[in-house]
Design brief:
The chain is of the alpha/beta class. 42% of the residues lie in helices and 10% in strands. The longest helix is centred in the middle third of the chain and has 32 residues.
Length: 438
């Protein structure tokens, strides 16, 4: 979409016009990122095996990888998608007659967490964290720094920020339970000590078996005195009520919130700095929040990122989008999907709503995207994912109808026709976002 008020910089950037955020393409045109994730020939091995049913089907259908790339690129463009999302074969983007943008992921924090092995969240206080992500970012980003087709770089995917579907731990308790020599544990205890001063004040809230700060540092496992609900509008109201009824719980919550905000600020500051040092030309488009985190984490993301990204598997993304609007930064929905129970797949494991039919699946896509585009801070949406998962389950057991195509590469006609229709109208819908929000 041409805009006489915008100018091309040779790379993607963000701009705000009449209260509405847009991406600006390298030539100066207004742009919304309409993407599909996991566009790859070798998508999804059957768990515990080397079998890749989608690749087997496409090898028979197309003959070789290059012909598949061209066919898929043309097909995505015909559905009015313009971005090849996370975990994709990036050569698909440049193979068809219309160039598609790419949006790769560096997994900086996740790679350090796996490197350390004893961490659920990367220890951002560890001096080796900065060294590790600087090298990783250089390896993964520097070669892209002159690429005009690169939309931006994701930092990580669905890190653990607070209680969610994976557990009830807080970041603070995770760091308090790192091995005693880890910098993150030392930082967590130091922060609590600076806040409470007297150990007795701390222990009146936390109720540990320790009798001093020194002894606390030696305890092998510190148990949280309270378990909080996952963040979100309804749960936040319940937590506020519980805190009003119990000053100790309120103090515990404040400790956890404050520490998470400090960790988030350090994480985003260091990761964005590492990526920008390797590639100063492109956007850093967030860490793909798996759920709405604490407000202090959202605020930290807004201070450092160019774009805040999040995965949202709801019928209506509006309330979640509104929570991120507080950052004042544009937002990208980096994952969403709907599963149809008529596709012949178990749909027994995987995120997001299930619907009865492919017709309802197409309607759910339309409702979701139109609702998202009516928000002035949204600059794109990426569907998860290109092809269905194996009926036997992939590496993590997911066995769902997430695809735009079947595992035999047969197109879901109703869904993709709706995608084409909505994608084609996206800029017009989004341009009216401010009026719709008033």
């Amino acid at each position: 979409m041409v805009d006489a008020d915008l100018s091309g910089s040779g790379f993607f950037r963000v701009a705000e016009r009449n209260g509405v955020f847009w991406l600006v393409d390298p030539d100066g045109g207004r742009f919304l990122s309409k993407g599909v994730n996991t566009v790859r020939f070798d998508q999804d091995r059957i768990g515990g095996t080397e079998r890749v049913p989608y690749a087997d089907a496409c090898r028979t259908k197309y003959g070789n990888l290059q012909i598949w790339r061209t066919a898929v690129s043309q097909r995505l463009a015909s559905w009015e998608f313009n971005t090849v999302g996370c975990w994709s074969d990036e050569l698909v983007a440049s193979t068809g007659s219309r160039l598609l943008a790419t949006a790769p992921i560096t997994e900086l924090g996740a790679s350090f967490r796996l490197h350390r092995r004893d961490q659920i969240f990367p220890d951002v206080f560890d001096s080796e964290f900065w060294a590790h992500i600087r090298v990783s970012a250089d390896q993964r980003c520097r070669h892209r720094h002159n690429d005009p087709g690169l939309l931006g770089t994701f930092v990580d995917n669905e890190l653990y920020w607070s209680p969610d579907w994976r557990g009830t731990d807080e970041l603070l308790t995770l760091f308090l339970n790192l091995p005693s020599h880890r910098p993150g544990r030392i930082a967590a205890i130091s922060g609590l000590q600076a806040h409470y001063r007297e150990f007795s004040q701390f222990n009146a809230v936390w109720r540990t078996r320790a009798r001093s700060w020194e002894e606390l540092g030696r305890i092998e496992h510190i148990v949280a005195p309270f378990v909080r609900l996952r963040p979100g509008a309804l749960n936040d109201a319940l937590e506020t009520k519980a805190n009003l009824e119990d000053p100790a719980r309120e103090a515990f919550s404040a400790d956890c919130d404050a520490f998470a905000a400090v960790v988030a600020d350090k994480y985003f500051e260091l990761c964005v700095s590492a990526i920008k040092a390797a590639d100063p030309n492109h956007l850093v488009i967030g860490s793909r929040f798996g759920y709405q985190p604490l407000s202090g984490v959202i605020a930290a993301a807004g201070r450092h990122l160019d774009v805040v990204s999040f995965n949202c598997y709801d019928f209506d993304p509006g309330p979640v989008i509104d929570a991120y609007a507080a950052t004042g930064k544009p937002c990208l929905i980096s994952e969403f999907s709907f599963r149809g129970d008529d596709a012949g797949l178990p749909n027994s494991k995987g995120a997001g709503p299930r619907v009865a039919t492919q017709t309802e699946r197409a309607q759910a896509f339309e409702g979701y995207v139109v609702a998202a585009l009516s928000k002035p801070n949204v600059i794109g949406y990426h569907w998860f994912e290109h092809a269905d998962q194996p009926v036997q389950g992939r590496f993590d057991g997911e066995d769902s109808n997430f695809g735009t195509v079947t595992i035999d590469d047969q197109v879901y006609g109703e869904l993709t026709e709706m995608m084409r229709k909505v994608n084609a109208a996206a800029e017009r819908i989004h341009a009216a976002a401010v009026a719709a929000a008033i």
